Amino acid sequence: MDCVFCKILAGEIPGKILYQDEEVVAFPDINPQAPIHILIIPRKHIPSLADTTEADSALLGHLVSVANQMAKEAGIAQSGYRLVINCGQEGGQVVPHLHLHLLGRKSLSDTLG
Ligand code: 5GP
Ligand code: ZN
Predict the structure, then answer these.
(1) Distance CA 64, CA 97 (A)
(2) How many Å apart are CA 69 and CA 19, to the nearest integer?
(3) Which spans in 51-108 are helix H?
(4) Which of 2, 6, 11, 100 minimizes the number of CB atoms within 10 Å of its CB?
């Protein structure tokens, strides 16, 4: 599988894993856009949010829940943070493996686009 995140999951690309369980893994973004920038991904290779269905609801909920847990551990749960899912080409998605961006510890822009 020629997917950079699947390679990270397989241990083929070394990196610091911040959290993992049977379904989800979290690790720092290689090119952080904020002092805290963590990626939360499913182990299952799902290309994008657009490829999910109702059957993935529990997994999607778990991804958000892990992001919230990571925010608490990073000490930004109270100061605030942003969760971003880029979906598809016009959504700015570059890596075709579903991921959540957890961004925090700086004043994030008021605008979303
Ligand atoms: P997207 O634009 O697809 O939503 O975000 C992809 C993110 O993955 C980018 O923020 C980029 O910096 C990050 N990224 C790309 N390749 C790697 C990698 O090999 N390791 C890590 N840790 N992050 C990566
Ligand atoms: Zn993948």
Answers:
(1) 16
(2) 10
(3) 57-74
(4) 2
Question: Which atom in ligand 1 lies closest to the alpha carbon of residue 92?
Answer: 2
C-beta 93 within 6 A of ligand 1: yes
Separation of alpha carbons 77 and 55, rounded Å = 29
pLDDT in tens, 41-78: 999 999 999 999 999 999 999 999 999 999 999 999 99
Is the CB of 30 within 6 Å of ligand 1? yes
Both structure tokens of 79: 């100061």
96 lines ligand 1 (CB under 6 A): no
Contact criterion met (CB below 8 Å) for 95 and 5: yes
